[in-house]
Write a structure and sequence with these properties.
By secondary structure, the protein is α+β, with helices and mostly antiparallel strands. The chain is built from 10 helices and 18 strands. Strands 1-10-16-15-13-11-12 form a 7-stranded mixed sheet. Strands 2-7-8-9-4-14 form a 6-stranded mixed sheet, with helices on one face. A 3-stranded antiparallel sheet has the order 3-6-5, with no helix packed on it. The chain is globular and about 60 Å long. It starts with a strand and ends with a strand. The relative contact order is 0.18. Keywords: Transferase. InterPro entries: CAT-like_dom_sf, Plant_acyltransferase.
Length: 449
């Protein structure tokens, strides 16, 4: 297990231009509704992702990455023209995209730093050095309504590498869609006139029915009274510190060997193993009462397993089976019920009370995103205003030049300092010394040492 602390690297960034890029050809002026799942409260945030690129050998004819990416964006917007529009809010907080060709924000910048200064493996989530400089939020563009739907900043480095920082509105894009757009831009940058995969707008498939009818239970949106018991640190978000933990082949193999049940081994995956491990350890260090209800929510699988803290930490098998089962229950009817629930209940937020929320990006790869410099080294999702500290973005990552490296899953997590230290200890226990957990005599959950 490799633990990465908050980066302390500091450098200066000079922004040269802040401009609006429009499609190179006229595009339709029309309105497109988002689905009632897209425009729910949990998606009304901006998310930054930070891929970086090394200097190509031999140099790419001294091409300027700023010009290459800006020009490819302008052409890609002909095909992805809704991204050059603006979000409007209708009655009942319903969101739609007005395709206006109002253009997308683009920033050109230079940084006084080499890529090597970020470390052998480059930029790692969740704490990105000088994030506010690598992805500058233009004051007039804040908020999701009537604002640009995406911002791109290309920052040249003094080593001839560059950082491509993208901030996208989550009501409009998820990680899979972003990769498709970047792939299209890369193809255009390399001389392909038409992207190999063209976008299709089918958001209406998950709009509410007429009349809306809730056919499933949706506990992920439960609203709890303020007096419900939660760890005291959750009321003081300034006390949290971010860390990243890497689970490579060795760690995942170790976790698999700890599973006792044949059924757990059969239904398990790398994501399920890692998520179960982190959920158990996080529950332990937050010191819930054994009878407290705890929850796990994977945002790409709209279902939520619920158990008690005491039951969860009995063994890893139980946690793995809880997480594994949710993907088999996500049916089309369930999604329609979510859409109807949004309309009838006023688009409530997810409940974060004793809930560990994970965004599973482990199957999103950048293999085909190539602007002429080869694929990016990583595509880290960074911590950002509006993203709750309870949320972890699991991403594929590769550690190089290390005995504990290889391809695996990077897990960013935020906890108070004392809890973070114990969290690392609990992970070490699970991966090295034992796999059994029980409830402590003081009434809070702890590991059995």
């Amino acid at each position: 297990m490799l633990l990465y602390a908050t980066a302390s690297l500091r450098f200066s960034v000079t922004r040269k231009n802040i401009e609006l890029v429009r499609p190179t050809k006229p595009t339709p002026h029309e309105s497109k509704l988002l689905s009632d799942i897209d425009d729910q409260e949990a998606n009304r945030i901006d998310l930054p992702t930070i891929p970086f690129y090394r200097r190509r050998e031999p140099p790419l004819e001294r091409k300027d990455p700023v010009k290459v990416i800006r020009d490819s964006l302008a052409v890609a917007l002909v095909f992805y023209y809704p991204l050059a529009g603006r979000l409007r809010e209708l009655r009942g907080r319903k969101l739609m995209v007005e395709c206006t060709s109002e253009r997308m924000l683009f920033i050109e910048a230079d940084a006084s730093v080499k890529l090597e200064e970020f470390g052998e493996d480059g930029i790692r989530p969740p704490s990105i050095p000088c994030l506010d400089q690598l992805i500058y939020v233009v004051p007039s563009s804040s908020g999701i309504i009537n604002s640009p739907l995406r911002l791109i900043q290309v920052t040249r480095l003094i080593c001839d590498g560059f950082i491509l920082a993208i901030c996208f509105n989550h009501t409009k894009l998820d990680g899979f869609a972003l990769i498709k757009i970047l792939t299209a831009m890369g193809e255009i940058a390399r001389g392909i006139l038409t992207p190999s995969v063209l976008p299709i707008w089918q958001r209406e498939l998950f709009c509410s029915r007429h009349p809306p009818r809730i056919t499933h239970i949706h506990p992920e949106y439960d609203q709890f009274p303020n007096e419900i018991r939660v760890p005291r640190y959750l009321h003081k978000p300034d006390s949290l510190i971010p860390r990243s933990f890497f689970f490579g082949p060795e760690e995942i193999s170790t976790l698999m060997s700890k599973l006792v049940s044949n059924n757990s081994r059969k239904i398990s995956s790398s994501f399920n193993l890692v998520a179960a491990c982190v959920w158990c350890c996080r529950t332990i260090v937050l010191q819930f009462d054994p009878t407290d209800e705890v929850r796990f929510l994977c945002v790409v699988r709209p279902l939520i397993p619920i158990t008690t803290a005491g039951e969860l930490v009995e063994n890893v098998d139980f946690a793995v089976e809880l997480i594994s089962k949710i993907k088999f229950k996500a049916t089309k009817e369930h999604l329609h019920s979510v859409a109807d629930f949004m309309v009838l209940k006023g688009r409530p937020p997810f409940s974060l009370v004793r809930t560990y929320v994970v965004s599973d990006n482990t199957s999103i790869t950048n293999e085909n995103v190539d602007f002429g410099w080869g694929k990016s080294e990583s595509a880290s999702v960074a911590s950002f205003d509006g993203v709750p500290s309870d949320v972890s973005f699991y991403i594929p990552f590769e550690i190089k030049n290390s005995d504990h490296g290889g391809k695996g899953i990077m897990v960013p997590i935020s906890l108070p300092a004392e809890a973070m230290e114990r969290f690392a200890e609990e992970l070490g226990i699970m991966l090295n010394n034992g796999d059994k957990f029980d409830a402590g005599r003081n009434g809070s959950v702890r590991s059995a040492l």
